[in-house]
Amino acid sequence: MGCAGSTPTVGDAGDGNVKKIRKPKPWKHPQPITKSQLVQMREEFWDTAPHYGGRKEIWDALRAAAEADLTLAQVIVDSAAVIVQSADLTVCYDERGAKYELPKYVLSEPTNLIRES
């Protein structure tokens, strides 16, 4: 009898949008780059990303997730209510439907990264 008025609890995965995130597949940059060049590319992306739309707090959560290990990254995207379209985090949405696209270089290192000594 009490079921008719029940509502799903916060965090209920009834809609099937919860996707377990994983590391991106190995990828190769067009030209071999150094770690410092990669860091600079990442900084430039994160500095400009909010200007392409979406909410700053979602961009901040995505950056934190991109820089964390997989377990923590999953907790971050779940708590920010990010809808993960691609399990490697390259395409995500917020609750309002805004799309967030992350390039692979902010999520992992290329296979042709030059190790600096």
From TrEMBL:
Entry-linked InterPro entries: DC-UbP/UBTD2_N, DC-UbP/UBTD2_N_sf, UBTD1/2
Annotated segments matching region Disordered: 1-32
Matching PANTHER family: UBIQUITIN DOMAIN CONTAINING 1 PROTEIN-RELATED
Domain DC-UbP/UBTD2 N-terminal: residue ranges: 19-116
Gene3D superfamilies, per the entry: Ub domain-containing protein, DC-UbP/UBTD2, N-terminal domain
Protein's recorded name: DC-UbP/UBTD2 N-terminal domain-containing protein
Compositional bias segments (type: Basic residues): 19-28
Pfam families: UBD
Source domain of life: Eukaryota
